[in-house]
């Protein structure tokens, strides 16, 4: 039986009641966040967490983010250092995940952390926080899609991919940020950027007065979600920094740039004709899906500026273009 879809704006109480009922049964549900749609289940229930991995086909060495209703709930499960607390107070609720030491008394299950002694925690905006508050326990929630594929930014995206595997999808419209959360880890006074995302590195550096440390290259150690080399991939191959497009390729461009041969593209999509990186981030996954749906053999993507949210956009595109495993 296909998943039931409930519009949160139209039926808010029904949505909350049904969501908590399914979560209480140990079943994963799909629900909107400000970043992308999440596949959520009780982070304290090992059977529920296992169902997340099974539904997505996700490797179990890849940890899950545990979402909290508020900072007070997060403090029940993880230890905050002063810099991480400053970040939480500034950017929560919002698209920032902090990797922090798990408290011994935390009920978050080892399966959700992939056996690590740290937890990625986040306080989301909007209806997901309402669900967590009503449910009373943290929700483990990766993106609501088959592992490694393009993340969903609408309920329709989730239904097309996982609709036959789920019982409930909450529809909150299009995700406004459109890329996953920024992931930060503070260690010994150093602040490391594990994954660029919906909060720009510049905003974090301005708040803390420090320069973020970035990885030199792919790491063999998975400390947080989104660190696999190949990820966020459509069915078609992805070609970056394109200045021309060949027959049979779809084109994704930015800021209305002219591209040689664009008239012969299988489909053409502009992430933001006016050159707005926030608009481009919000459109990224949706346009990758639309370009893939043209049946093109490859998707050519023009260069995207690397500052601000451009860092997160380029991170997702580089992983989408990486050799498939």
From TrEMBL:
PROSITE patterns in the record: YRDC
E.C. code: 2.7.7.87
Main localization of the protein described in the UniProt heading: cytoplasm
Domain YrdC-like: from-to ranges: 13-199
Protein family membership: Belongs to the SUA5 family.
Function noted in UniProt: Required for the formation of a threonylcarbamoyl group on adenosine at position 37 (t(6)A37) in tRNAs that read codons beginning with adenine.
Listed name of the protein: Threonylcarbamoyl-AMP synthase
Species lineage: Bacteria, Pseudomonadati, Pseudomonadota, Alphaproteobacteria, Hyphomicrobiales
């Amino acid at each position: 039986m296909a998943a039931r879809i409930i519009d949160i704006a139209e039926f808010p109480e029904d949505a909350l009641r049904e969501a908590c009922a399914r979560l209480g049964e140990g079943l994963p549900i799909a629900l909107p966040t400000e970043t992308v749609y999440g596949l959520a289940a009780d982070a304290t229930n090992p059977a529920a967490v296992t169902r997340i991995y099974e539904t997505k086909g996700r490797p179990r060495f890849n940890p899950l983010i545990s979402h909290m209703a508020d900072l007070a709930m997060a403090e029940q499960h993880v230890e905050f250092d002063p810099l991480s607390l400053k970040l939480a107070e500034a950017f929560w609720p919002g698209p920032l995940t902090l990797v922090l030491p798990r408290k011994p008394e935390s009920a978050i299950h080892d399966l959700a952390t992939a056996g690590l002694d740290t937890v990625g925690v986040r306080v989301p905006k909007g209806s997901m926080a309402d669900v967590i508050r009503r449910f009373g326990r943290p929700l483990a929630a990766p993106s609501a899609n088959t592992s490694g594929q393009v993340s969903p930014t609408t309920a329709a995206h989730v239904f097309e991919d996982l609709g036959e595997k789920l019982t409930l999808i909450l529809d909150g419209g299009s995700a406004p940020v459109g890329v996953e959360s920024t992931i930060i880890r503070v260690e010994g006074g150093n602040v490391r950027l594990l994954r660029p995302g919906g909060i720009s590195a510049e905003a974090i550096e301005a708040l803390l007065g420090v320069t973020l440390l970035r990885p030199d290259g792919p790491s063999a150690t998975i400390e947080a979600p989104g660190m696999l080399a190949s990820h966020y991939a459509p069915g078609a191959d992805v070609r970056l920094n394109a200045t021309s497009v060949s027959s049979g390729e779809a084109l994704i461009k930015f800021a209305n740039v002219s591209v040689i041969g664009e008239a012969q593209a299988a489909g053409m999509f502009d992430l933001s004709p006016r050159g707005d990186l926030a608009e481009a981030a919000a459109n990224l996954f949706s346009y990758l899906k639309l370009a893939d749906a043209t049946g093109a053999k490859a998707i050519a993507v023009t260069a995207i500026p690397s500052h601000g949210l451009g860092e997160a956009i380029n991170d997702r595109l580089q992983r989408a273009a990486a050799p498939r495993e």
